[in-house]
Automatic annotation (TrEMBL):
Name recorded for this polypeptide: Lipoprotein
Taxonomic classification: Bacteria, Pseudomonadati, Pseudomonadota, Gammaproteobacteria, Vibrionales
Classification via Gene3D superfamilies: 3.30.300.250
Domain of life (superkingdom): Bacteria
Length: 199
Protein backbone atom coordinates (compact mmCIF):
# COMPACT_ATOMS: atom_id res chain seq x y z
CA UNK A 1 0.00 0.00 0.00
CA UNK A 2 2.76 2.45 0.94
CA UNK A 3 4.51 1.80 -2.35
CA UNK A 4 1.29 2.38 -4.27
CA UNK A 5 0.56 5.61 -2.40
CA UNK A 6 4.09 6.83 -2.98
CA UNK A 7 3.92 5.99 -6.67
CA UNK A 8 0.58 7.68 -7.21
CA UNK A 9 1.49 10.75 -5.15
CA UNK A 10 4.74 11.12 -7.08
CA UNK A 11 2.96 10.80 -10.42
CA UNK A 12 0.24 13.18 -9.28
CA UNK A 13 2.92 15.73 -8.50
CA UNK A 14 4.45 15.24 -11.94
CA UNK A 15 1.12 15.78 -13.69
CA UNK A 16 1.31 19.39 -12.67
CA UNK A 17 0.17 20.64 -9.31
CA UNK A 18 0.91 24.32 -8.77
CA UNK A 19 4.22 23.49 -7.07
CA UNK A 20 5.33 21.31 -10.00
CA UNK A 21 6.62 22.30 -13.46
CA UNK A 22 6.08 25.78 -14.82
CA UNK A 23 2.77 25.98 -16.64
CA UNK A 24 1.68 28.08 -19.60
CA UNK A 25 -1.86 29.02 -20.47
CA UNK A 26 -2.31 29.67 -24.19
CA UNK A 27 1.38 30.51 -24.52
CA UNK A 28 1.56 32.84 -21.51
CA UNK A 29 2.71 32.03 -17.95
CA UNK A 30 -0.27 30.54 -16.13
CA UNK A 31 -1.47 31.77 -12.78
CA UNK A 32 -1.97 29.28 -9.95
CA UNK A 33 -5.70 29.99 -10.19
CA UNK A 34 -5.78 29.04 -13.88
CA UNK A 35 -3.86 25.83 -13.18
CA UNK A 36 -6.11 24.97 -10.26
CA UNK A 37 -9.33 25.59 -12.19
CA UNK A 38 -8.28 23.49 -15.17
CA UNK A 39 -6.92 20.68 -12.98
CA UNK A 40 -10.23 20.62 -11.14
CA UNK A 41 -12.19 20.56 -14.40
CA UNK A 42 -10.12 17.63 -15.66
CA UNK A 43 -10.36 15.76 -12.36
CA UNK A 44 -6.97 14.05 -12.62
CA UNK A 45 -6.05 14.21 -8.93
CA UNK A 46 -9.56 13.18 -7.86
CA UNK A 47 -9.40 10.11 -10.09
CA UNK A 48 -5.98 9.18 -8.73
CA UNK A 49 -7.23 9.53 -5.15
CA UNK A 50 -10.20 7.31 -5.97
CA UNK A 51 -7.81 4.79 -7.47
CA UNK A 52 -5.82 4.70 -4.21
CA UNK A 53 -8.97 4.05 -2.19
CA UNK A 54 -9.96 1.21 -4.48
CA UNK A 55 -6.56 -0.49 -4.19
CA UNK A 56 -5.56 0.54 -0.66
CA UNK A 57 -5.31 -3.06 0.59
CA UNK A 58 -2.66 -3.97 -1.96
CA UNK A 59 0.97 -3.73 -0.93
CA UNK A 60 2.50 -3.29 -4.36
CA UNK A 61 1.15 -2.08 -7.71
CA UNK A 62 0.97 -4.68 -10.46
CA UNK A 63 1.87 -4.05 -14.09
CA UNK A 64 -1.82 -3.71 -14.84
CA UNK A 65 -2.22 -1.09 -12.12
CA UNK A 66 0.83 0.80 -13.36
CA UNK A 67 -0.72 0.87 -16.83
CA UNK A 68 -4.04 2.10 -15.40
CA UNK A 69 -2.31 4.83 -13.39
CA UNK A 70 -0.39 6.14 -16.38
CA UNK A 71 -3.58 6.04 -18.45
CA UNK A 72 -5.24 8.29 -15.85
CA UNK A 73 -2.31 10.66 -16.10
CA UNK A 74 -2.43 10.67 -19.90
CA UNK A 75 -6.14 11.48 -19.87
CA UNK A 76 -5.67 14.28 -17.33
CA UNK A 77 -2.78 15.87 -19.22
CA UNK A 78 -4.66 15.64 -22.52
CA UNK A 79 -7.68 17.26 -20.87
CA UNK A 80 -5.51 20.08 -19.54
CA UNK A 81 -3.79 20.54 -22.87
CA UNK A 82 -6.99 20.97 -24.88
CA UNK A 83 -8.02 23.62 -22.35
CA UNK A 84 -4.92 25.63 -23.14
CA UNK A 85 -2.61 24.47 -20.32
CA UNK A 86 0.84 23.08 -21.09
CA UNK A 87 4.35 22.89 -19.66
CA UNK A 88 5.63 23.73 -23.14
CA UNK A 89 5.20 27.41 -24.00
CA UNK A 90 4.98 26.69 -27.73
CA UNK A 91 2.70 23.66 -27.54
CA UNK A 92 -0.83 24.90 -27.99
CA UNK A 93 -3.97 22.98 -28.86
CA UNK A 94 -5.76 24.42 -31.87
CA UNK A 95 -9.42 23.40 -32.09
CA UNK A 96 -9.70 24.30 -35.78
CA UNK A 97 -6.77 22.05 -36.65
CA UNK A 98 -8.44 19.29 -34.65
CA UNK A 99 -11.76 19.79 -36.47
CA UNK A 100 -9.96 19.73 -39.83
CA UNK A 101 -8.41 16.40 -38.86
CA UNK A 102 -11.85 15.01 -37.97
CA UNK A 103 -13.28 16.14 -41.32
CA UNK A 104 -10.35 14.65 -43.20
CA UNK A 105 -10.74 11.34 -41.37
CA UNK A 106 -14.47 11.13 -42.09
CA UNK A 107 -14.15 12.17 -45.73
CA UNK A 108 -11.89 9.21 -46.43
CA UNK A 109 -14.99 7.05 -46.07
CA UNK A 110 -17.46 9.35 -47.85
CA UNK A 111 -19.74 9.42 -49.74
CA UNK A 112 -21.39 6.58 -47.87
CA UNK A 113 -24.91 5.12 -47.87
CA UNK A 114 -26.71 5.84 -44.59
CA UNK A 115 -29.91 4.00 -45.48
CA UNK A 116 -32.12 3.37 -48.52
CA UNK A 117 -33.12 7.03 -48.69
CA UNK A 118 -29.98 8.95 -47.79
CA UNK A 119 -26.27 9.32 -48.43
CA UNK A 120 -23.67 11.10 -46.31
CA UNK A 121 -21.71 13.23 -48.77
CA UNK A 122 -19.01 15.11 -46.93
CA UNK A 123 -17.85 16.78 -43.73
CA UNK A 124 -16.36 20.27 -43.84
CA UNK A 125 -14.60 22.15 -41.08
CA UNK A 126 -14.48 25.90 -40.58
CA UNK A 127 -13.97 28.21 -37.62
CA UNK A 128 -15.20 26.18 -34.62
CA UNK A 129 -17.72 24.35 -36.78
CA UNK A 130 -18.23 21.00 -38.46
CA UNK A 131 -20.72 20.82 -41.32
CA UNK A 132 -22.22 17.50 -42.41
CA UNK A 133 -23.93 17.32 -45.82
CA UNK A 134 -26.45 14.66 -46.79
CA UNK A 135 -28.38 13.83 -49.95
CA UNK A 136 -31.95 12.58 -49.51
CA UNK A 137 -33.96 10.70 -52.11
CA UNK A 138 -37.62 10.66 -53.17
CA UNK A 139 -39.81 9.93 -50.14
CA UNK A 140 -37.38 11.43 -47.65
CA UNK A 141 -37.05 14.56 -49.78
CA UNK A 142 -40.81 15.02 -50.05
CA UNK A 143 -41.31 14.66 -46.31
CA UNK A 144 -38.47 16.81 -45.07
CA UNK A 145 -38.59 20.60 -44.82
CA UNK A 146 -37.24 23.28 -42.49
CA UNK A 147 -40.27 23.06 -40.23
CA UNK A 148 -39.99 19.31 -39.82
CA UNK A 149 -36.23 19.41 -39.24
CA UNK A 150 -36.83 21.68 -36.25
CA UNK A 151 -39.18 19.08 -34.79
CA UNK A 152 -36.53 16.36 -34.88
CA UNK A 153 -33.79 18.70 -33.58
CA UNK A 154 -34.08 17.35 -29.98
CA UNK A 155 -33.35 13.81 -31.22
CA UNK A 156 -30.33 14.94 -33.24
CA UNK A 157 -29.11 17.11 -30.37
CA UNK A 158 -29.35 14.22 -27.92
CA UNK A 159 -27.25 12.03 -30.20
CA UNK A 160 -24.68 14.80 -30.65
CA UNK A 161 -24.47 15.50 -26.92
CA UNK A 162 -23.65 11.84 -26.21
CA UNK A 163 -20.41 12.17 -28.19
CA UNK A 164 -17.29 11.10 -26.22
CA UNK A 165 -15.66 14.45 -27.11
CA UNK A 166 -18.62 16.64 -26.24
CA UNK A 167 -16.90 18.33 -23.25
CA UNK A 168 -14.00 19.29 -25.50
CA UNK A 169 -16.39 20.68 -28.12
CA UNK A 170 -18.35 22.57 -25.48
CA UNK A 171 -15.20 24.11 -24.03
CA UNK A 172 -14.19 25.41 -27.47
CA UNK A 173 -17.76 26.46 -28.36
CA UNK A 174 -17.94 24.25 -31.44
CA UNK A 175 -21.08 24.24 -33.57
CA UNK A 176 -22.43 21.36 -35.66
CA UNK A 177 -24.33 22.05 -38.87
CA UNK A 178 -26.37 19.49 -40.81
CA UNK A 179 -27.33 20.29 -44.41
CA UNK A 180 -29.82 18.20 -46.34
CA UNK A 181 -30.06 18.30 -50.14
CA UNK A 182 -32.24 16.62 -52.75
CA UNK A 183 -30.81 14.44 -55.51
CA UNK A 184 -30.49 17.51 -57.77
CA UNK A 185 -28.14 19.07 -55.20
CA UNK A 186 -30.57 21.73 -54.01
CA UNK A 187 -30.61 22.52 -50.30
CA UNK A 188 -33.95 21.58 -48.73
CA UNK A 189 -33.23 21.98 -45.02
CA UNK A 190 -30.46 22.66 -42.51
CA UNK A 191 -29.91 22.50 -38.80
CA UNK A 192 -27.33 24.30 -36.65
CA UNK A 193 -26.63 22.97 -33.15
CA UNK A 194 -24.25 24.86 -30.83
CA UNK A 195 -22.68 22.50 -28.31
CA UNK A 196 -23.67 25.00 -25.63
CA UNK A 197 -27.11 23.37 -25.88
CA UNK A 198 -25.68 20.16 -24.44
CA UNK A 199 -26.29 19.98 -20.68
Amino acid sequence: MKRLVYLVSTISFLTGCSTGPKWYYQGQPATSEQVSQIEKACGGDAKLEEYIKTHQKESSPSKKQMKEIFQLIKEAKTCMFVRGLSTDKDAQFDINTYLAQIAERYNKHLPSIVDTNSIANEVRSSDRKLTYTYTLFDEETKQLNQKKIKKIKPTITKALCSSPNIELFKFHQVQFEYIYKNKEGDKIASLLIPTSECQ
